[in-house]
Amino acid sequence: MTPPDANASRAGTGADLHYRALERLYDAAPVNALFASRLEIVGEGRSRLVFTVDRSVYHAAGAAHGTIYFKMLDDAAFYAANTLVTDRFLLTTSFNLHFTKPVRAGEVVAEGRWVSGRRRVLVAESRLVDAEGEEIGRGTGTFMRSRMALSSLAGYSPQA
């Protein structure tokens, strides 16, 4: 497979309109109101999520619960993959994750990167980096095109 072109995103292009619409789709998802986070589509096959971790997401031992790691890793990989699909919403069909370090507070960046696939199934990976620049987790997901048109989803609007 040909890797995505890092310079594919240019203001005003169809790709850029799609990327901004994906960012609005993220913002519109009710679950994302629960988290201090923001999505940035940085180019074809690439995404970046910035989360703020605080006590509200702790498990009993005083660090971020694994569900938060999954949420950040899945979202970053998902949106990286969905940059390559302009007509359909993708569904996560499997996701493997590895925890490498606990995080208690501060900004965490999830970096997503498309790996392979463009037709029906896409594979993307993601990693989490804490405020000190250390990797705290990583994951790989498989995503499948759904029957849902992106244009039918609240929040997805290439014409904002």
What do these coordinates show?
The protein is α+β, with helices and mostly antiparallel strands and 160 residues long. It has a single domain, classed as Hotdog Thioesterase (Thiol Ester Dehydrase, Chain A), CATH 3.10.129. Helices cover 20% and strands 39% of the residues. The protein contains two helices and six strands; from the N terminus they run H-E-E-H-E-E-E-E. The chain has helices spanning 14-28, 66-82; strands at 37-43, 46-53, 88-99, 106-116, 121-129, 135-149. The chain has a six-stranded antiparallel sheet. The longest helix is centred in the middle third of the chain and has 17 residues, at 66-82. The protein is globular. It starts with 13 loop residues before the first helix and ends in an 11-residue tail after the last strand.
In short:
The protein is an alpha+beta fold and 160 residues long. The protein contains two helices and six strands; from the N terminus they run H-E-E-H-E-E-E-E.
Using the alpha-carbon principal axes, give the shape.
globular
In the predicted model, the low-confidence regions spanning at least 5 consecutive residues are 1-10
CATH topology: Thiol Ester Dehydrase, Chain A
CATH class assignment: Alpha Beta
Task: Specify the CATH architecture.
Answer: Roll
Class from helix and strand fractions = alpha+beta
Beta-strand content bin:
35-45%
Question: What is the CA-based Rg, rounded?
Answer: 15 Å
H/E element sequence: HEEHEEEE
Q: Biggest sheet: strands, sense, closure?
A: 6 strands, antiparallel
